[in-house]
Design goal:
The chain is α+β, with helices and mostly antiparallel strands and 817 residues long. The protein is 48% helix and 19% strand. It comes from Gracilimonas sediminicola.
């Protein structure tokens, strides 16, 4: 029986090569899309699960609402971790990270810039699974000025992995002993460090300041410890350790602090949840989003359904060709179940053939998909058993789902009618097929509308007046590497002699991700600091050229002046800071803050610093447009980390060549690193850009598959109405009238799809836009455009089949009458 099924299936496969090819390709595209997304989802869900105790590791997070400024931090204070480890036996191990970004590494007299530096407690290897290749993890980071490095960096700088005992020179003259070499961290980790420097190297790690949050703290809890129950301990921490400092700093208790509408909460965040469920301030890198995992998983299901619907429509479109076969087989004794089994076998065979083609498509497109998804995704069909079983299940379900309706319909033909050539469809079959096409195009319209809304939002972000001009600004990074501060000034001044360099500013602070942030509390002069008048504010050190170089607008007062020595004790506030400090006519008034101990980051409450407000700058977005503008103060103080140059409309390569030549002349051993401000700004929306690219790809696939389905239905309609078309042509109908006749019912289906899809698309995209504080208006034009695009593609698809039917010689369709 099975042998006969296969024989007939292959015979029909080769007999109808065009329709078989379309069926296989349509299914293959759907399966390939589903497999690629399955690989992506599997990759996203695997983050941080390589740690042996990943289900018991938690990060301590801070949620602070103070002075109307609400921040959620991935970090907490230096003493938080050690105190929790000391007080609570449920904490088996604790470790902290203090990120330092990038450093210069010297090799053979020349410096190279490397990222991935972090200070870490020696207990990091007790909490996380970081396999050691050389050295002893228990002792690797116990002493100051020691470092453990990844195998990748060891081979890069020493040409071998066994480098324990060697010296690594950073920042030109800071020597550190290498005490361990570990396996390069996998890309499925929410952190990726190449250099772990001993926490004992920095004094800040030992401070007792509970109101400063600079350390990422992780706890390994004992088995059967409920994180919700352990979080209750933070109330004791707040009362015992934080309240005394709050009382000393502001003169209020924690209860009074909270009654004023402020709060300071601490929570545990599961390690396995960080990548897909966390977007806190201070993340090590941009995380993924469970929302997008759901979206793409849904797209995979829908695109696979579209492919199955195509199979149904193309199979039923060929029903007339196989009607007599069914009639003969039934006359010879075949029952309905046998015929249905035959057609299901053909469907499964096509599905497995489609899988082979799909795997070829996957291998071909996976590098492209990995690139636009920003992930290193690999195909592991045979090493990943759940993935292999999942793929096999998808193929079987797809084959059965796609073949169920055609099998039921074809096996239901009555032999007497089909052998006379007058077989009729059962009532409802035509309506079912039309419903499938409506479903296909409804999904397509939703996808296209989503793509257009995402594109509009990204255009809105790029074109919104953000309070500064980001175009034609290049930032030369690590300017301190030139040497003395005078050397940085001299480099800037020499560049300003070029006609295409319009202005320049020296600072470590720029309004995009990747540059310094510094948060301190300030209050108006003449008042004592209280919860009602103290504002947590960004403190940026800039020079007098900062505002003109970035083309910001001073709305009150003036900019800093190099001719005013007192401006070193001056500040320019943004509008939000003025509002939060409740200052009327702020120019000429002063704000205060406590002095800081720069050795360990502690607050020196015996000394206050006063700054006169000389100007107010219009609010500008220095964080993502997902967030409101927060209070910020610009201080006329030295910070020589980077030099930004605004250049005229000139050849960018020429600008970079001149900058690099001057840099190399002054610092031949130092790397020349630069970044364009507009590109750094765009990187803050890298996730949205990736989603846009993925949505574009999936939109094309969805439309392609939907058009194949429409092709099948129009082919079926043309075949069913062949004699009608022949008679109309004999009676004088032209091609245009036949085209209108054939297209009319399909245009009605597209209109129904439009009416169904628009409310769905509106609700979905309205929800997506809620993550942005600044967002585009969701007008009807986007949805109308998506409908028109779909309609145009549908007309083109139907027209091809209709014109083909209209050009057929009527003699061929009427000869049997």
């Amino acid at each position: 029986m099975l042998k006969n099924y296969f024989k007939i299936a292959f015979r029909n496969l080769f007999k109808n090569k065009v329709y078989s090819s379309v069926n296989i390709i349509g299914l293959a595209v759907g399966l390939a899309t589903c497999i690629v997304i399955l690989l992506y989802v599997s990759h996203e869900l695997s983050y941080d699960k390589h740690h042996s105790n990943s289900d018991r590791i938690y990060r301590v997070t801070s949620h602070i609402d103070f002075g109307g400024n609400f921040i959620e931090l991935a970090s907490t204070s230096a003493p938080m971790g050690p105190t929790l480890k000391e007080l609570y036996p449920e904490v088996e191990a604790m470790t902290r990270f203090r990120p330092r970004g990038s450093y210069l590494i010297k090799k053979e007299g020349k410096n190279y810039r490397e990222s991935g530096f972090v200070f870490a407690d020696s207990s990091v290897f007790d909490v996380f699974t970081i396999p050691f290749l050389y050295g002893e993890p228990d002792h690797a980071l116990t002493q100051p000025q020691t470092v453990a490095i990844s195998e990748e960096m060891a081979r890069k700088y020493f040409g071998r992995a066994d480098v324990v005992g060697e010296t690594l020179t950073i920042q030109d003259d800071f020597d550190m002993e290498i005490t361990g070499v570990y396996e390069t961290m996998p890309n499925t980790s929410h952190f990726h460090f190449n250099f772990l420097i001993s926490m004992a190297t920095i004094d800040e790690a030992n401070n007792n300041v509970w109101l400063s949050n600079n350390f990422r703290t992780y706890l390994l809890l004992s088995e059967n410890t409920a994180p919700e129950a352990f979080e209750q301990n933070f109330e004791y921490i707040k009362k015992t350790y934080i309240e005394p400092q709050l009382l000393q700093f502001m003169g209020i208790t924690m209860k009074e602090f909270e009654e004023a509408g402020n709060r300071a909460d601490y929570r545990l965040q599961a390690l396995e949840d960080i990548h897909l469920h966390s977007s806190l301030t201070g993340e090590f890198k941009a995380n993924g989003s469970i929302t997008y995992v759901y979206i793409f998983s849904g797209l995979a299901v829908f695109i696979l359904l579209l492919a199955c619907i195509n199979f149904m429509n193309l199979s039923t479109a060929r029903s007339a060709k196989r009607a007599k076969e069914v009639g003969v087989r039934k006359s010879l004794g075949s029952d309905r179940s046998t015929l249905a089994g035959q057609f299901l076998m053909e469907s499964l065979l096509l599905s497995f053939l489609a899988l082979i083609v799909a795997l070829f498509f996957v291998e071909l497109t996976l590098p492209y998909f990995s690139d636009i998804a920003g992930r290193t995704i690999s195909s592991q069909y045979f090493t990943n058993l759940p993935l292999s079983l999942g793929m096999l299940g998808i193929v079987i379900v797809t084959g059965l789902l796609a073949g169920a309706y055609p099998a039921a319909m074809l096996s239901s033909f009555q032999p007497v009618k089909v052998l006379k050539g007058t077989h009729l469809e059962r009532k409802g079959h035509g309506l079912f097929r039309k419903g499938l096409v409506v479903f296909q195009f409804s999904i397509s319209i939703v996808i296209i509308a989503g793509l257009l809304v995402i594109n509009d939002q990204l255009q809105f972000i790029q074109n919104k007046n953000i309070g500064f001009e980001k175009d034609r600004v290049v930032i030369v990074e690590d300017a301190y590497a030139i040497g003395s501060s005078n050397g940085v000034d001299s480099f800037r001044d020499e560049m300003l002699k070029n006609s295409f360099i319009k202005s320049a500013t020296i600072s470590s602070f720029f309004p995009v991700d990747g540059y310094s942030l510094n948060d301190l509390a300030y209050w108006p002069e003449g008042k004592s600091p209280t919860q009602n008048n103290t504002v947590s504010m960004q403190t940026w050190e800039v020079d007098e050229n900062y505002i003109p170089t970035l083309k910001m607008e001073v709305v009150q007062g003036r900019n800093f002046s190099e001719n005013r020595a007192m401006d070193k004790q001056a500040v320019i506030l943004n509008e939000t800071a003025v509002q939060r400090l409740d200052l009327q006519d702020p120019v000429g008034k002063s704000i205060l803050t406590f002095a800081m101990n720069h050795e360990d980051g502690s607050i020196d409450q015996s000394k206050t610093l006063s700054y006169e407000i000389v100007g107010v700058v219009r609010d500008f977005n220095f964080e993502s447009l997902r967030e409101n503008v927060s209070p910020l103060g610009l201080f006329n103080q030295r910070s020589s980390g980077n030099v930004a140059f605004r250049f005229a409309d000139a050849n960018i390569s020429e600008v970079l060549a001149v900058l690099e030549a001057e840099w190399t002349a002054r610092a031949p051993e130092q790397p020349f690193n630069y970044a364009f401000l507009d590109q750094q700004f765009d990187r803050m929306y890298r996730t949205e850009n990736r989603v846009q690219n993925l949505m574009s790809t999936f939109s094309v696939l969805a439309i392609l598959i939907a058009c194949l389905g429409l092709f099948g239905l129009s082919a079926f309609s043309a075949e069913k109405r062949a004699k009608e078309i022949g008679i109309r042509k004999v009676l004088g109908a032209d091609i245009a009238s036949i085209l209108r006749l054939m297209s009319k019912e399909f245009m009605a289906l597209i209109l129904v799809s439009f009416m169904i899809s628009i409310p769905i698309a509106y609700l979905v995209m309205q929800q997506w836009l809620q993550q942005f504080t600044y967002r585009t208006d969701l007008g009807m034009s986007v949805f109308l455009l998506s409908g028109l695009i779909t309609l145009g593609i549908a007309i083109a698809t139907v027209s091809w089949q209709s014109v083909k039917a209209a050009l057929t010689n009527p003699v061929n369709s009427l000869r049997n009458e």
